Amino acid sequence: MVRHFLADDDLAPDELTEVLDLADELKADRFAHRPLDGPRAVAVIFDKHSTRTRVSFSVGIAELGGYPLVIDAQTSQMGRGEPIEDTARVLDRQCAAIVWRTFDQGRLEAMASASSVPVVNALTDLYHPCQLLADLQTVRERMGALAGLTLTYAGDGANNMAHSYLLAGANAGMHVRVASPEGYAPDAEVLAKAAALAERTGGSVAHVVDPVDAFTGADVLATDTWVSMGQEGEAADREAPFVPYALTSKALGVAAREAIVLHCLPAYRGKEIAAEVIDGPASAVWDEAENRLHAQKALLTWLLQASAQQTLPSGP
Ligand code: CP
Ligand code: NVA
Fold this sequence. Notes:
By secondary structure, the protein is of the alpha/beta class. It has helices at about 15-30, 50-65, 85-90, 105-115, 130-145, 160-170, 190-200, 210-215, 250-255, 275-280, 285-310; strands spanning about 40-45, 65-70, 95-100, 120, 150-155, 175-180, 205-210, 220-225, 260-265.
């Protein structure tokens, strides 16, 4: 059976550790693994804007020996209504994997349902799991471990980053607090799924309304834009309620002494994060952005290997 990566919990906790170990190995030796030697093509499709995801997948696929085929979905036939499943059936005969940034999670699931090669979520409205692989790699290299650490994400609790922090953090045995104003709470189903996962890994998850409570004692502070792609029309309403959740030096002041700061980028200084915080000594955001490369190379290597192993005929 082919392995896809549509959500953070598509990797079991031990598999997540394998991918993060592989990411560290690839960071130390960029050309240690060449699963795409040939070169084999990987389709990298965008329905939304991107800088980091486009660059890190393109560079990473080339470094794995492959060829990145970057496709603007709007100018493909999908942009004129060709069914997603038909697109999958065409791409999977020529590409080793399909990486897709799109809107609804259901679109990605439709692609995966018809694809015989791994499908990777490069961001949907619901999750951003590749970003979390890079975030976890960054936290692990700064703090030495993941399990038992407290991570507070403050801002839009209903967006893709909040949901991925809940699932991936729980998967890693972390204590995840999502702090958000009323009306912007995490999806109840995602929160319940993360809570069940945390119970198995020794972590915990919580939705907290008071931002000071959420920041107090945290080892990792994270935030994201208050206006995600596709929400531009709501920008005016998405300002005042979020101001108390901004990652300022005051927030950092109540966190753990050696706390680090994450932001998936792009960042809006003076909105969700203060300039002195993102540009200050606690910020790990540039390592975090670099680690997209290593983490995604590890993910692709792992998925290709796992999918090949699982398609081997079973023994007598
Ligand atoms: N963090 C992130 O995914 O950045 P891009 O939108 O630039 O790809
Ligand atoms: N929540 C943001 C993340 C950008 C990488 C968005 O979806 O626009």
